[in-house]
Amino acid sequence: MATAPAPGTRTVDREEIRSKLLSLVASYLEQPVTDIRSDGKLVDYGLDSIFALTLCGDVEDEYGIEVKSTLAWDHPTVDAITEYVYEALTAEA
Amino acid sequence: MTVIDSSPRRPAERLGPLDDLDTPEPLETLFGDPDDPGNPVGHQAFVDADERGDFLPAGRKTLETFGIGAEFVPRALGGRLGQADDLARVLRTVFRHDGALALGLGAINLIASSTVWAAGDAEQRRWLASVLLDNHPTAGAITELAHGDDLTRTRLRASERDGGVVLSGRKEVINNVARAHAVTVLARTSEEPGSRSHTLFLVDPAAVPRERMRFLPRYRTSGMRGTHLGGVEFLDCPLPATAAVGGYGDAMETILRCFQVTKSVASGAALGLVDTMLRTVLDFGTQRRLYGRSVTELPYVEAELADIFTDLLICDAMTTTTCRALHVLPRQTSVYAAATKYLVPEIEQRAADRLALALGARSFLREGPHAVFQKHFRDLPVAALAHSGATVCLATVIPQLPRLARRSWFTSSAPDPALFRLGEPLPDLDFGQLEANAGPDDQVVATLLDVGRDSVTDPTLRTLCARLVDELRDLRDGWRTLAPRNRTPFAGPVGFELAERYAVVLAASACLGVWWHNQDHPNPFMRDTAWVVRALDRLTVRLGHEPLPEAASATRQVFAELLGRHAEHRAFDLIGRRLH
């Protein structure tokens, strides 16, 4: 059974981050996760400026990192956010 | 021997909010007795100007004599802008007399200037400060009629050309734009969808080629008829490259931060309209006799007017707390400002509707001694919408609440009491501290637990606070179980309802904090429990509770205070200063 990793020992997996973010976006849109492209612009799915606030709160809570409130503006696709989170977590580890 | 005073010219010292409550504010003194028919800036003069559809020239003069422009200029740039709650109270004074003046020559300056204080360079800030210190009007050309508050869909285009910038496109429903000496313009600088495609520009209308900037016809309005709502069209209008305010693509972020200030201040300011409407009804009711007594001696009218006074105190507690939070809790105000800008206009409008019923036919007569009522009644919805409507405010709150539910409610600790202490000076407003979204630390609502659950001893107040704590628990559970879609701007009615209920809990928390932390208020009424009991009873009724029978008895005391303030010409707010 999986247990929470101790701080500093968490392994960072890009694909896990990507799939977590994809399922978050899919849940907001109430669409199957297979309908969301990781290189598609969030704004093209109708997820605009205010939604970015929701997403960055969720990312902060999910990964325990602080992100700028404009995260999803400057990193407008799931792929771009994945990279950002990956870098942040790697730097932390 | 000649003594040369080398000290710089100091702006007028402001009276501390709770100092010497028998002395009117300097601006209020300039307006004088509004009921004096010979007063060139009295109610009759403003009603006449409204009938003509223009600003009252004498009113403009009064604001110039006072030096209204300096109120919007940060102290560091030679003005008087330090605290947001002070600015809200100055503008509230103007709103007591006239909405068109208060918005067009007052509040609008904040919309135009706050983005420049936040993101402009030193030269832009110096220039805009000089425009305002000379009392010249400014305008914020932000909205386009087709897109309303959805600013990301802005069409007005700015393109780089020959080392400068060229503006093309139009802005509509812009207050005072044709008279402004400085205009901030929101423009699209990239065709990419999203929130990094917009830039703000600071325009000096006197410096652009005349034929490249055209003013659109004025819009006529039902309320604030004196207001000059116009539009502007830029026809390949060249600007220097230095006109950009902040970096390219920064506009939406700057606006999200700065409009927290404008929302908070505007909500606190517009209370002045309802203050005068309530005063007008009391003028009428204390003289008018029905069934052998004055109207205000009828129990139903007494309860109605006491409740409306209570509503004004609720609104002032909420707006003052939000304004002060800009200084004390700048990381949290994205939620507070939007919740306030939703709830306060809603409470004000209901209060105005009930006042109109109490005033009867005089609520719509455009002449006679109570004619100011119908004018203010028409001004109020215009003030409520400027500069963001209720729906967009709730849509700003909704995405942020799930996180407060998860991380903050029942966990965050209570704020620094300075947040609520009306007389305590705060560090000057720092736009750089404000954040586009709120952190997970809702300290205002933590006051509900700190004061309401853990400190209060009065049994009636304890019962009311227990209801509110239960509501907060329900809200927490509600947000936690809500489908993700309802946490986005696409939320269904359930998301909006939870956001509305949160705003009520926030207002109640502000009332409790203000009451608890101002036990040195010079007016014993503000230290006593009656007003806060009535306030919390009214707010819990809003949440669907039956009125608490024990809370009803406090109505009498609230009404006695209202009559006393009316007789002594005192403001119907948390301060209660004499008006003239």
Description of the molecule:
Chain A is mainly α and 93 residues long. Chain A is built from four helices and no strands. In chain A, helix 1 crosses helix 4. Chain B has 580 residues and is α+β, with helices and mostly antiparallel strands. Among the domains of chain B are: 111 residues, Acyl-CoA dehydrogenase/oxidase, N-terminal domain (Butyryl-Coa Dehydrogenase, subunit A, domain 1); 109 residues, Butyryl-CoA Dehydrogenase, subunit A, domain 2, CATH 2.40.110. Chain B is 50% helix and 10% strand. Chain B has 19 helices and ten strands. Chain B has a four-stranded mixed sheet with strand order 1-4-5-8. In chain B, strands 2-3-7-6 form a four-stranded antiparallel sheet, with helices on one face. Chain B starts with 25 loop residues before the first helix and ends in a 13-residue tail after the last helix. At the A-B interface, helix 1 and helix 2 of A face helix 7 and helix 12 of B. Chain B: Belongs to the acyl-CoA dehydrogenase family. Chain B: Pfam families: Acyl-CoA_dh_1 (PF00441), Acyl-CoA_dh_M (PF02770). Chain B: Its cofactor is FAD. Chain B: InterPro entries: Acyl-CoA_Oxase/DH_mid-dom, Acyl-CoA_Oxase/DH_mid-dom_sf, AcylCo_DH-like_C, AcylCo_DH/oxidase_C, AcylCoA_DH/ox_N_sf, AcylCoA_DH/oxidase_NM_dom_sf.
